[in-house]
Amino acid sequence: MSDQEREEMSIIALTDEQGNEVEFELLDVVPYNGQEYIAIIPVAEDDEESQMVQLYRIVPDEDGESETYMGLESEEELDAVYDEFQKRNAELFNFED
Hints:
The protein is α+β, with helices and mostly antiparallel strands. It has one domain. Helices cover about 20% and strands about 40% of the residues. The protein contains two helices and five strands, in the order H-E-E-E-E-E-H. It has a five-stranded antiparallel beta sheet. It is globular, with a radius of gyration of 14 Å. Residues about 1-10 have low confidence and may be disordered.
């Protein structure tokens, strides 16, 4: 698989609340506490705030063929999943405290 193919596979499109399709780079799928989470950042955004990692819980749909991404409900869950993401990717990214 070429680097370009690998990069293309890491781009996903999600629909926002207004029905607009937004592209994100999929950084990792993080297993934590029996569930899976996606770590993503928006593609083609220039401001620093939009480049922050966003985390969502993966919820498989009933048909088993698709999935929904749910925002994290508690600060504790967010912190724990982000910590796990950092541990898994310490060699790939330069994390700032």
